[in-house]
Amino acid sequence: MNLKSISLFCLFLTLCVALPVQAVPQIEGRFIELQNTYNKAEWTTISFSQVYDEPPAVFMLSTNQGSNPAIVKIRNVTRTGFEALPLEPSGEDGPHITMGAHYLAIAYGVHEFPDGDIVEVGKMELGGGTIQASTSSPWYEPDGPLKVGEENARYARVSLETDFGEQPVFFHSIQTLNNQVDVNGKKPPNEHLLPFLTIAAKYEAPSYFMALEASETDYAPVTHNETVAYMATTEGFNRRFFDDNGIEVVWEADFADVRIQGWDDGCFRNDFKNNYTQTPLVAASKISRNGGDGGWLRSCGVNKNRLGLRVDEDRSLDSERNHTEEDASILAMTSEFVFSGEVPSCDDAFPGAVAAFGGSAISLAAGSRMIDENAGVLSAQQFITDATSGSADYPKCGQNPVDCTVNNTDALTDSQARAIPTITIDDSGPEIAEGDLAGDYYFNRQLVTMAAGNYNVIAPTRIYVSDPGDNIGGVATKFTMVNANITVAEGAYLATCYSEGNG
After folding, report:
1. What are φ and ψ of residue 399, in 5° steps?
2. Distance between CA atoms of 289 and 209, rounded to whole angstroms?
3. How far, in Å, CA of 365 to CA of 439, rounded?
4. Is 65:72 a contact under the CB 8 Å cutoff?
């Protein structure tokens, strides 16, 4: 078969059972500093450390920098980044001093980490029918639309796909800013943010419920939905995975043992369960609404041992910022990191006997025969053959041979493809000889042949074939099997991997 157009993985015999599925998603985290908006009243563009397949969920924890009530808001989340800015509620002038924030970006979906723990990341739309606020605020009648006694009806249930079997640790973050209106002809941060919306969350077994939280701020109509991201996982610590640089990321997800009170009440510190060598990246969310004033979380000190939190409040109706005890979820992960997606499972990389990704084509010579369970359909963007359609020697695919077709789809997503390890393919062999096959074989030449004979694949076996780039006449590099009788032992597999050029 002619393998010239297959990008990397191309031939796979038998079901791959070499590795368990480990679906760590695209994920990253770091600490950022946002400019002093007294000096520069502009949104800060934050570029991700990678390009996501789809815009990810972004979770942020604002610090206590600046004594005025404020929160870091985000907008315009794309595959490559987002915009962020510290904004203040009504009762404040609008601009804010430099504020730092931790951010965690993670792909949406249900993800299984190497330790077996499930992390579910989803999103939902919340609008004008799901708002909580102080009953003494302008959001209630006669100034606003809210009515006393209807508070429970103004929550939306979070529909988790995963049955965690217990209350999961839960995080939330508004991803949009769809309802902002100008104040005195000015946009924030030159004025306060109106409406100023955070999240109210509560747990009533077996579900979490969320609403937009207006606290005691000034009223403005909510005429558009806001997108709210959420993340849920079981409580636990000493969880681990490796980032793109091979650095082990140690992480934990916990409920706050010390419940969180208000800005004027102090700083409420919770010890980490893991032993970190430096200050970890942190996220936190308020998951109860015990006080009638709403509020949101800000950090008030973090080091390698503990995270301090307090509930901040607006000063629209009064200047006090005391707050009753609230429950919180805490996430901590080893410092800054980026992971571009788990190395794909064998079933993903090899959805059939032949597969390609990265926009590559599959080329099969006349008389080729591919046996798999895909009913004659190849996974690739394009299928090329030198045979005539409908002829007897047209390549046949499937357990019951039919003319091969293609689904015009890459076998791997861009992020999965980026996770494939890069290797250098020399011409070190060893030569493929009749008998037992096991381990890795490297060829950088025009023609590689598995000659007629009996071959026993007794262990995972990979044949790497590289086009040297100097074939006479520019002919395609080929890997051919000539009447080879191949037996694959249980737990073993045979894969032929092809790359354009030496690498």
Report:
1. -65, -40
2. 11
3. 27
4. no
The reported pLDDT for the residue numbered 257 is 97
Q: Long-range CB contacts (< 8 A, 24+ apart) of 444-450?
A: 444/468, 444/502, 445/477, 446/471, 446/472, 446/475, 446/477, 446/478, 447/477, 447/478, 447/480, 448/477, 448/478, 448/479, 448/480, 449/479, 449/480, 449/481, 449/482, 450/479, 450/480, 450/481, 450/482, 450/484
* C-alpha span between 446 and 405 (Å, rounded): 27
- Find the angle CA(487)-CA(489)-CA(490) to the nearest 5 degrees: 140
Question: How many beta carbons lie within 10 A of that of residue 228, not counting itself?
Answer: 25
Give the torsion sign (CA, 373, 374, 375, 378).
negative
Q: pLDDT by residue (tens digit) across 234-275?
A: 999 999 988 888 789 999 999 999 999 999 999 999 999 999
Beta-bridge partners for 12: 495
Read off the pLDDT of residues 61-92 as tens digits, 9 standing for 90 and up: 999 999 999 999 999 999 999 999 999 999 99
Burial group, residue 19, by CB count within 10 angstroms (0-12, 13-18, 19+) = exposed
Chain CA centroid to CA 82, Å: 15
DSSP 186: B
* CA angle, 421 then 426 then 431, to 5°: 110
| Beta carbons of 409 and 49 less than 8 angstroms apart | no
In the numeric block, the tokens 């499930």 are attached to: 118
The backbone torsions φ and ψ at residue 369, rounded to the nearest 5 degrees and listed phi first, read -135, 120
Contact of 281 with 335, CB cutoff 8 Å? yes
